Amino acid sequence: MKRLAYPLLVVAVIACGFSFLAPPSAAQDGPIRQWLKQRQQQKVAPDASTDAATPITRPGDYRFAIQHDGRTRMYRVHVPTGYDPATPAPLLVALHGGGGNMDYQANDTYYGQITQSDRRGFVAVFPNGFSKRRNGRFATWNAGNCCADARDQNIDDVGFIRQVVSNITRQMNIDRSRVYATGMSNGGMMAYRLACEMPDVFTAIAAVAGTDNTRSCTPRSPVSILHIHARDDGRVLFTGGAGPDTRDRSKVTDFTSVADSVATWVRLNGCPAMPQRSLEKPGAYCELYSPCRGKARVQLCVTETGGHSWPGGVKPRGDEPSQAISANDVMWDFFDRR
CB atoms < 10 A from the CB of 303, how many? Predict the structure, then answer.
């Protein structure tokens, strides 16, 4: 019995630890099984390459580390199961929230973007924001007036993402007319900045729980904008400002309101001032501003509940995401309607 006590103690400690970290919806799987499942989802494919010049011809998951602006920057790529190098594929740049990282955004349990990539056939790219840590955790994006170290050190995240997209379009057969960006919170704010400064690359963006906090915005051409936001968001307030749930309030920006963000892009894209109701269901609605210059569109989707979260997703702690709509489905319906 003495020889078995130590292993049993280790198993008990591991089980307790990962039970605490597992998302509520996965509790029935057991803590260790759920942990193994998440590790498998994040596992890099055997043919993964750290050489950003190597052609990618097979489905799978790849990690890259490149040098940009004197810093090592990381990103991961998911190539869908049906990828055919002979057929141009859409590309989605998915940006994690402030304090997150690329692995968190790529966690299919939380965001479902890997499943959506395989279902819809787009290549999903998960860049890592600026982090002081070598592992890339607790990263942020320089979205203009937000956020944290990336903003304070004026990190060239626009240049980094431009390089990432350039690398991938050389490695794979990408439809350059269908390159999109999305993001959660600070990632959504960064998507707005990409629309401002990279309209030559991005056809459309979808911001979730993150408003337009750019310092200036003079896009050379129209970019379609989808904004998704919960009315009861306690961090990036629907009506503007940083809410009571915002961490480290001494360093946050006074966030732009949802209405002002949408109005800015209605003006920039030359859209009609009055929207049309494009979706209405219990707990959510969408309003569409169209037609706009250059066939662009602006759409706002609002959930009544969900707080600061990704609609249709799973959040391991804090706000329970609204299930009235799926952010993934809404954005791809928007992207596909060109």
Answer: 25
Helices (H) then strands (E): counts for the chain: 10, 10
Amino acid at 280: E
Smallest Cα–Cα separation from 258: which of 209, 186, 205? 209
Cross-strand bridge partners of residue 112: none
Question: In this structure, are residues 310 and 321 in contact, taking their beta carbons and an 8 Å threshold?
Answer: yes
**Do the Cβ atoms of 63 and 48 come closer than 8 Å?**
yes
Q: What is the rounded distance in angstroms from the CA atom of residue 254 to the CA atom of residue 101?
A: 23
Q: What ranges do the domains of the chain cover?
A: 1-43, 50-336
CA distance 328 to 338: 17
Kindly report the backbone phi and psi dihedral angles of residue 76, in degrees, each rounded to the nearest multiple of 5, phi listed first: -125, 155
Q: What is the DSSP letter of 233?
A: -
Residue with tokens 């704010």: 189
Is 320 in contact with 306 (CB distance < 8 Å)? yes
Q: Give Cα 111 distance to the centre of its chain.
A: 9
CATH fold of 50-336, please?
Answer: Rossmann fold (3.40.50)
Question: pLDDT truncated to tens, each residue of the chain (338 aa)?
Answer: 434 333 333 333 333 332 222 333 333 345 444 444 444 444 444 334 458 889 999 999 999 999 999 999 999 999 999 999 999 999 999 999 999 999 999 999 999 999 999 999 999 999 999 999 999 999 999 999 999 999 999 999 999 999 999 999 999 999 999 999 999 999 999 999 999 999 999 999 999 999 999 999 999 999 999 999 999 999 999 999 998 877 655 466 789 999 999 999 999 999 999 999 999 999 999 999 999 999 999 999 999 999 999 999 999 999 999 999 999 999 999 999 87
Distance CA 26, CA 70 (A): 41
CB atoms inside a 10 Å sphere around CB 309: 26
Cα 21–Cα 24–Cα 26 angle in degrees, nearest 5: 90
CB 35 within 8 A of CB 42: no
For tokens 């050489």, name the residue. Answer: 51
Cα(142)–Cα(128) distance, rounded to whole angstroms?
12
For residue 242, give both structure tokens: 């940083």
